[in-house]
Amino acid sequence: MSRHTLRNSLCSALFAIIASSNLFSQTTRPAVFRASAQMVLVPVTVTDHNGKTVEGLRPEDFNILDNQEPQQIASFGNDDAPCSVGVVLDVSGSMRNILGSAKDLAAAFFAQANPEDEFFLLTVSSQPETLSAFTTDVTALEKSLDFSKPGGMTALIDTVYLGLSRMRQAHRPRRALLIISDGMDNHSRYSEAELLRVALEADTQIYTIILDNPTGGGVGGAAPFRPSMVAKPIDQARQRQQPNLLDKVSEKTGGIHFHVGNAAQAKEAIVKAGEALRNEYLIGYQPPDSGTTGKWHRVRVKANVPHLNVYARNGYFSH
């Protein structure tokens, strides 16, 4: 039996006991989004109007809907469990004037890690490149960043697709991707639809930090790279669409997306991303019996406390 299958079996057995006893319980199990016949587990992040992570909420502060039907919360927890995180850093030609700032963001993210967190590092250029497989050696990861040089086309979708595939090798139950990019793509083989399908099926939250690269200076203050100098019109149109794609994959997977235009905003975003990842609520409920395997269930989590933002995956496929 594989490790993944064994983990699923153990989770199913545990929550079968919870469901059969019909008792509400507090749990500190690491956050995963997984559905079985016994339980659906939904990792949830809550922030205030300033984007700061909100802690200390209770089960009665949440409502959860499955296909618009209210569900009774059967388990609830909040902890800082170790994470498996894939970092996707864009080093393509469009990043040449803001790559230094992007590297600083990645290094800052590694610096605030839990000692038990593990990371892999992928870079985006004409094709995905793996700089590191899963490791807890943050110092080695930071050194790998130093050797990254800007250049090439931008296969952003392909690199994120590869990152989601690599998460199957993760050793921690809580899993996430962090994407640092200006959001352009002009060289991917996979389509937006293919990426979204894989993202919806993965137990991985996607956090994105999109670095604005406007005329007159990017995040690093230098003159921006202008795609119109090298790209065909069809490529320019595709490039303009990609920041919206990054927003979309974050929203659908329960992550958070940030658009930053200067160094101060970038620093604030990386801190908030780290805090959000490590301060999640885990809400469990018994799934309704749809009678159909593979049916898509739309999930919505709402907070009863005013003026809060709630981030959670928007659904799952029944098993």
Keywords, separated by commas or semicolons:
319 residues, 6-stranded mixed beta sheet, alpha/beta, globular, 7 helices, Rossmann fold, disordered N terminus, 16 strands
Radius of gyration: 20 Å
Distance between the termini: 19 Å
CATH superfamily of the domain at 83-277: von Willebrand factor, type A domain
- SS-based structural class? alpha/beta
CATH topology of the domain at 83-277: Rossmann fold
Which sheet architecture does the biggest sheet show? Answer: 6 strands, mixed
Low-confidence stretches: 1-33, 215-241
CATH class identity of the domain at 83-277: Alpha Beta
Q: Helix and strand succession?
A: HEEEEEEEHEEHHEHEHEHEEEE
Give the overall shape, derived from the CA principal axes. Answer: globular
CATH architecture of the domain at 83-277, by name, is 3-Layer(aba) Sandwich
Give the proportion of residues in helices: 25-40%
Count of individual helical segments: 7
Mean pLDDT: 82
The proportion of residues in beta strands is 25-35%
Oligomeric organization of the protein chains: single chain
How many strands appear in the DSSP assignment?
Answer: 16
